[in-house]
Amino acid sequence: MKLLKSLLPDWVRDYQLKHFSDDLLAGILVTILVLPQSLAYAILAGLPPQLGLYASILPVFVYAIIGSSMIQAVGPVAITAIMTFSLLSPLATPGSVHYVMMATALSLMSGLLVLVFGIFRLGFLSNLLSRPVVGGFISGSAVLILLNQIKFILDVHVIDTGNWGQIASIVQQFSLINPATLLLGGIGFLIFFMTRNFLTKWLETKGISNFRASMITRLTPLLVVIISTILTIQLDLDHQYDIKVVGNIPSELPYLSFHLPENSDLVLLFVPALVLAFIGAVQNITMAHALAIKRHERTDSNKELIGLGSSNIMTAFCGGMPVGGGLTRSAVNLASGAQTPLASIVSALTMLCILLIGVEWFSKIPLCILAASIMVAAISMIDLSGFWRAWNYDRADAFSFLVTGFGVLILNLQIGIILGILLSVANLLYRVSSPHIVVVGRIKGTEHFRNIERHHVETLPCSLFLRIDESLFYGNLSSVESKLMLEISKVPNINSVVLIMSAVNRIDATALEVLTEVLLALKTRGINLHFAEIKGPVQDRLLNTVLYKNL
Amino acid sequence: MKLLKSLLPDWVRDYQLKHFSDDLLAGILVTILVLPQSLAYAILAGLPPQLGLYASILPVFVYAIIGSSMIQAVGPVAITAIMTFSLLSPLATPGSVHYVMMATALSLMSGLLVLVFGIFRLGFLSNLLSRPVVGGFISGSAVLILLNQIKFILDVHVIDTGNWGQIASIVQQFSLINPATLLLGGIGFLIFFMTRNFLTKWLETKGISNFRASMITRLTPLLVVIISTILTIQLDLDHQYDIKVVGNIPSELPYLSFHLPENSDLVLLFVPALVLAFIGAVQNITMAHALAIKRHERTDSNKELIGLGSSNIMTAFCGGMPVGGGLTRSAVNLASGAQTPLASIVSALTMLCILLIGVEWFSKIPLCILAASIMVAAISMIDLSGFWRAWNYDRADAFSFLVTGFGVLILNLQIGIILGILLSVANLLYRVSSPHIVVVGRIKGTEHFRNIERHHVETLPCSLFLRIDESLFYGNLSSVESKLMLEISKVPNINSVVLIMSAVNRIDATALEVLTEVLLALKTRGINLHFAEIKGPVQDRLLNTVLYKNL
């Protein structure tokens, strides 16, 4: 019994009954509110719509048990859906049996990779992606979503020949646009857009409480879907005006089956799975973190990865699509007052009931309405303000954003993200390679030493005080050395040089050797080199070195 | 006239006549002392021996005019020779006409690349190589040289099938070893080895001055070559005992010709040329730097690259071999008292005279003696002490050394160096990703704040002082944030947190966003976040940010 208890997640053991009603309500609300999205994301991923529902059961359940976040809800999300489509559509025809099997294999492989990241505590690898790179990636992907979904609003058949081919294809078929679809989709788009961006604030100005206003805002899109569906059924829009609808969804449970991916697929899918795993991991960790800060909780990145990985592996068993931590899902969860992952378990059970009771009326949901809802979500994913902040603060970061975004759009997802990572690393290397080094003097009457160009300070004759504002390593040693020699040559009759090491956090082997050479060379010229304010950990390492012995 | 004068290098305009005799003597000495080496390195590179002599004329002249170092002497060196052999032998049969043409093309291309590095001021790129990586690369190359030269001492015909194939081939032919060659080569090896490692010190213990002792040490190898050549001629060793000799060298000047490399060769040679350019540049800059420090001079990395590049381009015009900054050459130059690059010009002219007067007797130099001299030089290139220093100071650096060295040996030069660079960058990223963060307190009665675990300090209730010993960037923000939250959770009734930023040299866009989020999140919990000792350049950038406005 004790063993059984220790196997249970912390939140189950410490569960407080007072949270039960909150969790119950939140779980039911999340399922109902995100149901249209789940269908839409499956369609976006190029998969049969029911897979979006299947992916909202078992994976959600597994994540609730294993994940580290109390509030985050996983499920089909925009970014994993567009990634699935972009990564797989060059390899198989969307909607085909082979495509569905590949999506399953992709879930499984990326899930396994994420699980391995978590087990080997490689969560820190997600630090390879800077925010501008992630922002550029998500913005680029959002434009891909828009390009992908516009066809449903216009009701034209797009021949998929890359992103620019799609645009050309749409322009060519301009005369074939279905005005009824455009009207319905357009109205839907406007309502979704206004609701998402202005409704809450407008309601608040009318004196409605923030909680109510945000619940109304979240319910409105569902109402639009329901009303448009009722209209379609009542007015027979799908036959009278040729408005495309979701179509029949089998009212059955996902068959728990599992096909081992073929070897050839494994090879083809390795890089896509890695990209999906990487981006999924970063997004999940970032969001879990942000939610935890809001609730004064802490998350464990590696546990988070194990949860996300297991969840995706489970998806593969019910023929589903890759899942991720969903912004909307988690926000609904938080806003509905969910307290523990029990809300997610309730949500999974609710979806199970919906599938059992029947999903026939889903078949009449107009595709243009779903597309409109996705497009509004996609527009909000384009992180222009993030780009502007980066632009104003650090041009190199803004450049990484642009390169990643356009890389995703013009080339492909993999190349975009790789370009972004390479740029960030190159930028980092370049920065640490050109360190800030200043000559300092003492502020009169204090023990403080400051930059002689910024402050009024006193200096000593025949001596030089230099503060090095960077860790010393192979990449910047030569420029540090040049600067040191330059400053030495400026001081007449110099006999001592003091290097102030308060900002030197590390000295690597190359730096140690060069410093030793400089020390010995200066000694032969009658100049003594001294070190001041060396940090504890740096000093510890220097104790047994030639440098230390020659000081 | 003024224009002409301004085109002259600085050292020519400022030339002091008193240096003339020093430069003259040094120039002549260098040529004579390194002559056997020049032949040997050409053979090591798989080229006809006279190319080593040709490469000691025009390239040396060009470098003297264009290079930035006053003392460094370029010419055929061990590392470029073995690199030429390793890079080209998979592409053409060593010694063949095509091979010689490829070597010329390789010189030209690597020269152009180095020149471009210099013109575009990319000298800083050489900072990508840490000393342990360079050490590992050179040590690995040295072992390649030993494997390559052993055949001349044993006088066996080695079928070149990779490094391990060579060893197997030598072992198989153990019974075919020529005892006469082994004896002569072995004696030569012993004398060279003892001379190089012990002679100077031994002579000094006998009361001979350091200058004389080192000149005797440098002359001895030349004497060994001369004596062994005379012995070979007198005793007819090459016919009586089948001792291989250098063979006929055409006593003519290098024909100034130039063949544009074929397109197919250009493609094949691009990566090898890049590797050669990269390593050549690093070695040259490092050595020019070290020599300049000894002489209280300064060098300009980019000018240095322009000199080295032009020098290699010139090599290509006289059908020569790639050249580099030579340790032995430069050391002889320095020891002989050279004061300016005039010494190198004298050296080039001396070599020209030798070629004109006649090189017939070079044909009888025993190959085993040249091989022995190269092997002794190669042994001294194996940087075991550098490895030990790295091992004792920083295991990760030692690991980079090993991986690069074994990569060069087991795989090839290109892969070895790439592995080394990747490891160094990964190591750097890993280090900055896991920053040192300490809780500090004030040393009583002072303004100094120190680690509470290392010093006896006083702290305030309800507050936390944290010193972050690393620049904040996308790679370490999450660990900084975790550590911050952990420490906050340890202080009861906490209401203020002070981050001491004295060691934070940079805050990138990702870090800025996370800090802003943390600041706002803490504010809602009634905790104020403060920053202290922000560096000038960091503060300048923060002024217009959301973070600053919310402080």
Describe the structure.
Two copies of one chain form a homodimer. Chain A is mainly alpha-helical and 551 residues long. Chain A has helices at residues 2-7, 10-13, 20-44, 50-54, 58-66, 78-88, 97-119, 131-154, 162-172, 179-205, 210-235, 237-240, 263-294, 301-317, 327-335, 342-357, 367-381, 384-393, 395-410, 413-433, 477-490, 509-524, 536-542, 546-549; strands at 74-75, 324-325, 436-442, 449-451, 463-469, 496-500, 528-532. The first copy, chain A, has a five-stranded mixed sheet, covered by helices on one side. Chain A has a two-stranded antiparallel ribbon with strand order 1-2. In chain A, helix 22 links the parallel strand 6 (496-500) and strand 7 (528-532). The longest helix of chain A has 32 residues, at 263-294. The termini of chain A are far apart. Chains A and B meet through helix 8, helix 13, helix 18, helix 20 and helix 21 of A and helix 8, helix 13, helix 18, helix 20 and helix 21 of B.
What is this entry, summarized?
Chain A is mainly alpha-helical. Chain A has 24 helices and seven strands.
